[in-house]
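Run log, item B.
One chain of 176 residues. Sequence copied directly from the ordering sheet:
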Amino acid sequence: MTRRAASGAAVSHGGRAALGRPHRFGPFGCRATRAGYPSVMPVQRFAFRFDPGFRVPLALLGIRPQTCAVLLDDEELVIRFGRWQLRTGRGNVVDVQRSGPYRWWRAVGPHLSLADRGVTFGTGTTAGVCLRFGTPVSGLAPGRWLRHPAATVTVTDPAALLAALRRVPAGHPRRT
């Protein structure tokens, strides 16, 4: 079951991900902590914005609205983009910025930046959010040989994702 939060982001409840696959989040949409207690913040789901002209080419890669989302709770950030997935602890996100507009050949689809090894998961050219990580994470290729210091996502509501990422979860020290 999914409901809309005040910010417009979908909040997922239930033992299955909003993408239709089981995941590590518990029965109430909360990620179970190591002690077995649920986290305080429910899972927030941010959908990708699909520009109409790119829907068919992206669908050929398995990138559709049903297979793409940014999932966030107070412990973890998960970016699902078709068959690609980026997963990191929420504390590893050290900076977030609104970005865009983009050139389509640099932003639509899964892209690797040759300048800084950052990854882009793009479905449109209008606007998105750039996330910087303290410790680089894998996302485009399996294994540890290709790690990304940043990721850009083109979600439907960049302002809501920015606000959610800038909010300090309960029990976590404030980043400086």
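Observations after the first pass:
- Residues 158-166 form the longest helix (9 residues).
- The CA atoms of residues 29 and 158 lie 22 Å apart.
Flagged for discussion on Thursday.
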